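Re: the request from the purification team.
They wanted to know what the chain is likely to look like in 3D before they choose a buffer screen. I agreed to run a prediction and write the result into the notebook, where they can find it.
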Amino acid sequence: MVLTVAARTAPPAAGWRRGSAARRLAPLLPALATVLLLAAPIAPGDVNAAGKVAPADAASAVLVLTCAVRLVRARRQPVLTARAAALLGAPLIGFAASAVTSPAPGLGAAGFVRYAQVFVLVPVAVVLSLRDRRDAGVLAGTVVVLALLQGAVGTWQYATGTGASYMGRDVRAVGTFGPSDIMGMATVVAYGLVIAAGYALAPEGRARARWVGPAAAVCAGALLVPLAVSFSRGTWIATAVACAAVIPLAGRRRAGRVLAVLGMCAVLLVGGFGAGSRLIGDRVASIAAVTDAPDHSVTDRYALWSAALSMWREHPALGVGLKRFPAERDAHAPLALSSASDTEGAGQSFVREPLLSPHNMYLLALAEQGLVGCALLTGSWAGLLALAATRLAPTRRRSPMSSRPGVGLAAVGLLVWTCVDFLYADIGGPATVLTAVVLGLAAWWALHPEEGREQGPADGRGR
């Protein structure tokens, strides 16, 4: 009789658990779809085409709308603390001021929507969608999965000579983003590597399975390959700085072990490339030559930076207006600037891509939004980074074990990576929406101390 009752009652219990898991995952689906849709191939010419909306951007709009509807139905008051609302919402003031004072109202309005999407709306929606550390882990894991997918495509491109053109050879890994967005795959892979490194460095807590650390270390080592063959100097620098910033927060012993493993992976990586190691070595060496003997791409970048500073000097307070940099570029740029860069390979014929931004987010904000907008935007990032790092510092009330969770280390690494990478890049292209998602993930850790606290299995929710 006991066996019969158990057999009859087991299936409903299992079904209840599956239904409970599905209901728990449902609020995260728009955010997960936003990330995973970045694996969809980008058709040549779609990256910068006017009026084109990438699938991931459409998914981010659904994320914002579903979050808003859920909040209205739940009638949660308040939805954000005053500190969270101030840090995340402050950049809107600069965006609005620059859009209103822009001499091109249409461009100003379009720029306001884009900047609000990337730096405010999507991050806020992610913050409100994540309920606890398990949700944050699911989203972080999804970013790593996307990085592995894009990295696999990029590594195959390098190995088969079907990537973007680099030094006369089609070996540059660009993933599914194509040569028109050569930073897309590098950005995705770097975000995945930083997250994996954070989870690999984190001590094993009660709320984490034992396999997470080793699996994260393997993922971080595997992602070194596509990162190397992306030939992106700015991404290399940002990744190195982010990992260097996170490692001390993880403790000396564990950091030493992880560094030893990553060092061996790097040696095997360079040694296993054969002839390709020369290309990587030359690219690394060129980092030190950007001031003494800069190549053509670096010369163009310096010219664009000079143009951005010139725009700011003419309009120091509110800038020239959102999305006005391309229209003002030629009036402020030196004669050394090229009108476009050459791209080809990875399924695309030779195309001249116009240089429409300074490839420096800080200078872009300074030129288009002035000192007011730039200060509000960078101040928001600095505040989030300070809060995220503070939460990782051990205190008397929290043990070192519980103060260094993987999501916290990953959040600090992501913020550091983004702030450093913005010295060499700015928003643009389909991968920009991933920047918005990871900013939201990092902001959740920085602004939700109660939800981010270590929980054991005894709390009644299985964490």
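For the purification team: The two ends are 34 Å apart (CA to CA).
Please add any questions underneath this entry.
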